[in-house]
Design goal:
This protein is α/β, with parallel strands linked by helices. It folds into three domains: 95 residues, Cobalt-precorrin-4 Transmethylase, domain 1 (3-Layer(aba) Sandwich); 84 residues, Rossmann fold (3-Layer(aba) Sandwich); 88 residues, Cobalt-precorrin-4 Transmethylase, domain 1. The chain has a four-stranded parallel β-sheet with strand order 1-12-10-11, sandwiched between helices. Strands 3-2-4-5 form a four-stranded parallel β-sheet, with helices on one face. Strand 6, helix 5 and strand 7 form a beta-alpha-beta unit.
Length: 286
């Protein structure tokens, strides 16, 4: 079996900067990470082993007990920031600057009188951080959700890890359903996400299956796997080499490899080595 790797994949600068920040902390037990620093279980397990406290994503509305609270790369709303500061917490901020840019774009649309349409995953921590500061908004995951909106001005912005293809389809659907409205678009899909997606597109024509490495809760990793399937290429989403099943590869001769933006280089290398060394097994006869 031949293995081809995407020419751009794995950890982005925002995640690397956040992890570098963590490495410089002298007393991990004095800090609570407000949610998951990144959506990657290997990274989270390492942080727990080093003594960091973490709020579960579902428990982020509880005020942490430690005096120091770390804001993750996904960011938080100004409302949430104020709530934590009013509770006497000192904030250590690792918000990715490209996420901060998405927040600023949404605020600018709102300030200019637009009803804000956020293209992204409903309930995702980054999207929650954006819309908590909005007075008039809708979150759109798929083009089929678009409807006529009772607003004269519609502003469209994006979760940083949205796919270009889905953004284009939703923009077209919004325009078609709302011919009465002035529409303004702020492209806040981040450059690393676009590079990962473009590298995947280049690779898909050369392979008959894909392995996508990343955390189960990682939106950009899920989007990479979904794009493979949209193109008719089977995709296996794994968190580590332990998730590889030789039977799955029995009918595939050329397999591509890519990884989400919060995936460690060591995890990618581990998966690549396992794929290269793999002897595929045919399914047992029924």
């Amino acid at each position: 079996m031949k293995v081809l790797s995407a020419d751009v994949m794995g950890m982005c600068f925002g995640v690397r900067d956040a992890l570098k920040f963590m490495d410089a902390i002298a007393d991990p037990e004095a800090i609570t990470i407000h949610g998951e620093l990144v959506h990657n279980e290997a990274v989270l397990s390492d942080l727990r082993a080093r003594g960091y406290r973490m709020s579960a994503e579902a428990d982020r509305y509880e005020v942490p007990r430690t005096p120091l609270v770390m804001i993750t790369a996904h960011g938080i709303s100004d409302f949430e920031r104020g709530r934590l500061e009013n509770a006497g917490k000192q904030l250590l901020d690792t918000t990715c600057p490209l996420v901060a840019r998405a927040h600023a774009a949404a605020r600018k649309l709102q300030d200019d009188g637009f009803h804000v349409l956020v293209i992204g995953r409903r309930g995702h921590v980054e999207v929650r951080g954006i819309v908590e500061d909005m007075n008039s908004f809708d979150v759109i995951e798929e083009p089929e959700e678009v409807r006529p909106y009772p607003h004269a001005k519609l502003g469209i912005t994006c979760q940083t890890t949205a796919t270009a293809a889905n953004v284009r389809r939703i923009r077209e659907a919004v325009a078609a359903a709302n011919p009465h409205a002035e529409i303004r678009f702020a492209d806040t899909v981040c450059h690393p996400t676009k590079e990962h997606q473009a590298a995947l597109e280049r690779l898909l024509d050369q392979v008959d299956a894909m392995v996508v490495v990343g955390g189960r809760n990682s939106n950009n990793t899920r989007e990479l796997a979904a794009r493979c399937r949209e193109r008719g290429v089977p995709a296996l989403h794994v968190q580590s080499a332990a998730d590889l099943d030789p039977v799955w590869f029995a009918d595939h001769e050329i397999v591509g490899l890519t990884a989400g933006t919060s995936t460690l280089d060591s995890t990618i290398d581990e998966v690549r080595r396992a794929l290269v060394a793999m002897k595929t097994e045919s399914p047992a006869p029924v």
